[in-house]
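Obj: model holo form, ligand = D-malate.
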Amino acid sequence: MNTFTYKNTAINYSDSGKGNTILLIHGFLENSSMWFDLTSHLDKRYRIISVDLLGHGKSDCYGYVHTMEDQADMLFALISELRLRKVSLIGHSMGGYIALAFAELYPDNVRSLILLNSSAQPDSDERRINRDRAIDVVKKNSNAFTRMATQNLFDKDAHNLFPEKIEAFTQQALKTPLQGIIASLEGMKIRIDREALLHFSPYPKLIIASKNDTIIPLDDIKNQVAGAEVTFEIIPGGHVSTIEQEPKIASIITSFLKKNN
Ligand code: MLT
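Output (holo structure tokens):
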């Protein structure tokens, strides 16, 4: 792993392989280790950069709110430091919100955009209220919050099919610092609508949505992509497709990148 300093904040990232660059952006309570299995399908052809976002994994917190734009600015600073111009972005869930913020702020640096179990819409009013409730729970007992939040991400069969992977995922999530959790909840709560990017941006886009995703409902994504020039794939399973559908998403992503990179 490597360290980079962004506004006096230590950022942890890995950098491997050669070729066009893919920037992997994990979701809430996740970290760069979540991409390990997927990376093994990609790193023969591409340079893969996987970052621990602000307040996640081994990266420090930057503030009391980490907006999607803060995270995108940090990613832009990292690729600038590495002297990279264009990258393909792959974002899971909150990582997709951040990929969209990056794409809006730095369009010249985007080769292609892949959203996994993510959405271009902002939080609904109800969701914002739930974020505030979550922040109250986190302040009282962040471990209990993290355990509950991670269990709810998976489809019902996943707990029997992938018990070890889900336990490893939960153990990683439990390492997320309290300030990092709250700063992300606050940041996701105030994120803006970026649906226009799905319709009007010039680079190739792939959206992968899961049938039983309880965090990002499939019907919402179907509405967002209607009429947009995107490759849209629906897969079985719940929110964490990198665990539940790893071979399937690897094959969808590899063939999309082959055509579009
Ligand atoms: C994530 O998995 O990144 C989050 O659950 C997304 C969200 O809460 O909106």
